[in-house]
Design a protein that fits this description.
Blueprint (H helix, E strand, L loop, with lengths): L2 E5 L2 E4 L4 E8 L8 E6 L6 E6 L5 E3 L7 E6 L4 E6 L8 E7 L5 E2 L3 E6 L1
Parallel strand pairs: 2-11
Antiparallel strand pairs: 1-3, 3-8, 4-5, 4-9, 5-6, 7-8, 9-10, 9-11
Amino acid sequence: QVQLVESGGGLVQAGGSLRLSCAASGTSVTINPMGWYRQAPGKQREFVAIITRGGTTTYADSVKGRFTISRDNAKNTVYLQMISLKPEDTAVYYCKRIGFVEVWGQGTLVTVSS
């Protein structure tokens, strides 16, 4: 059974940092592209970042230069390092395995206070 479990969310002041983790089981984070998405209150879920099988990364314009996606193959975990957080980054952040069969994690809440 494929499972993605996010962690690392919390409350942080504007300008602060957080690192989100997405621990995978039943699948390898090196086989499929892995992405981070977020959903703010009252808004649609949106793309944040992706890391491909080959390690290429792509970011939404709104987070470029502030967020970094990475993975630890040995730990089978994908990370999202977030710095210079803004109140508009407040959302539930989801990890996603991208492919023929997509799998979502349960999400982790990030709240950025002004």
